[in-house]
Amino acid sequence: xxxxxxxxxxxxxxxxxxxxxxxxxxxxxxxxxxxxxxxxxxxxxxxxxxxxxxxxxxxxxxxxxxxxxxxxxxxxxxxxxxxxxxxxxxxxxxxxxxxxxxxxxxxxxxxxxxxxxxxxxxxxxxxxxxxxxxxxxxxxxxxxxxxxxxxxxxxxxxxxxxxxxxxxxxxxxxxxxxxxxxxxxxxxxxxxxxxxxxxxxxxxxxxxxxxxxxxxxxxxxxxxxxxxxxxxx
Length: 233
Prior knowledge:
Number of strands: 14
CATH class of the largest domain: Alpha Beta
CATH architecture of the largest domain: 3-Layer(aba) Sandwich
CATH topology of the largest domain: Rossmann fold
Oligomer: single chain
Largest sheet: 5 strands, parallel
Strand order of the largest sheet: 2-1-3-6-7
């Protein structure tokens, strides 16, 4: 069974050679990589893409990565791994105190960095969490209890699996093949594509205010489906 893993990373590092090396190393894990060489570019990327993890240098040409992380934490819990040549214990404590998820001092091994990036992604992956609060929804996949605005939703087992895959990849397009493979597991190769269409339709009827004009489960024509956070088109 092919695992659905759609992760997007942002590398903010002004050393272009190091930035490129990190990107090449991490791209081997089928991760989508965005690169920035200063905070201005990083902020622009953050507004136009859903980022699952930031690798953030502390000393940047236009500011401090520590200050940027502190700003980020006011509105976002995106995981942050600090990169820095500052190896003082007080600097490391400050990094964690401002909301960093890991702290790597230069020089470092790219293989070790990759291992630590994958560890943080596993730790913070919403698909691995039993409960998710997103928009008007509270979803408890462990207890199989689902609510919208505090009111319970009754979902079939297939709808629950489909919802979990969609929510775990919020903001990312999932193809029909990926959704069928993940939702129907071992039976995926025997599932008619129409089964997915029907499941999406039923799920929308239970989650959407207006199923014919969905805000959460969007159809991306010619590609697949995407869970959004309810933004208007």
